[in-house]
Amino acid sequence: MFKKLAIIGALAVPMFGMSHGANAAETTHRVKAGETLYKIGAEYGVTVKQLKKANHKSTDSINANETLTIPNSISESDKELLARLVQAEAKDEPYAGKVAVATVVLNRVDSDSFPNSIHDVIYQGTQFTPVQNGEINKAADAEAKKAVNEALAFRGQGKGSLFFFNPDKTSDQWLRQKQVTITIGNHVFAK
Description:
- The structure is a single chain.
- The chain starts with a helix and ends with a strand.
- Helix 2 crosses helix 8.
- It has 9 helices and 5 strands, in the order αβααβαααααβαββ.
- It is elongated and about 55 Å long.
- The chain has helices spanning 2-9, 37-44, 48-54, 76-90, 95-110, 118-122, 129-133, 142-154, 173-176; strands spanning 27-30, 67-70, 163-165, 180-184, 187-190.
């Protein structure tokens, strides 16, 4: 678990707001033995900070059989769009790479240098090849959807990757000049 958090941590940025596109109805969750706020957040696609705020908690402590309110996160349509991008960009990459691709999009939403919605980040100019070649329109698999939820749960923590590229598929020198935060599979992540 620590290694996974360290990898994701190399990608995330501080949060400027938590309600980007939120319109899903709140729900509740009965805590099972062994669950943590992070695991619950990864299941629903919300951060620990959001869970604590919605449940008036000042610590990470939870108890089995406790009922938690799961706050609104992003819209289901934004989750689906992000999962389709993850599927298209990272289908042959390790799971951590899928989480990292989703994290880059979320980091851009939270950055003043990019549009402030998932849809607008994904469709900004020629940023993502799957938008250009139509792969964005193909369905996402369960692992891509899970990766999006995990990226949402970890949102706002880490070093701030805003870019990723496959050095074997691009000669873009501008990207290669960026500060590398981590390499996962065939992708280099940078800020």
